[in-house]
Amino acid sequence: MNAVYRSYGPLLGTIILLGVAVWTLAMIVGPQLFMIEQSLWRMEQPDSAVTAGMRIEELNNALSLAQYDLGALEGTTDPDKMAEREKLARSVSAMEQELTTLQGQDTAPVKVYTISNYTEMSGYHAEIFVKTIGASLMVTLIAFAVCYPVAYAAAKLAKPERAALILLGLVIPYAINELLRVFAWLMILDYQGVANSVLLWFGLPEPVRFLDSGAGVFVAMVYAYVLFMVFPIYNTIETLDTNQIEAARDLGASTWKIHSRVVLPHAKPGIAVGSIMTFMLSAGSFSVPHIMTRGTAQPWFSQLIYSKFYDSFYWNQGAAYAFTLLLVCVAFIILMMKVFKVGIRDIAK
Amino acid sequence: MSSTAPSSSVSASRVVLSVYMALFFAYLFLPLILMVAAGFNSYSPPSVTQWQGFSLRWFSELAEDQRILQGIVNSVVVATGVILLSLPLGLSGALLLSRLDARSGSLLYGVLVSPVLTPGIILGISTLIFWRQVDVGGGLGLTVMAQSTFIAAYCMLMFMARLQRQDTSLEEAALDLGATHMQVFRRITLPFLRPAMLSAAVIAFLQSIENYNTTVFSIGASHTLVTEIGSRMRFGLTPVVNIIGLLFVTVTVAVAVAYVLLRQRERARTPAG
Question: Is residue A332 part of a domain?
Answer without folding.
Answer: yes
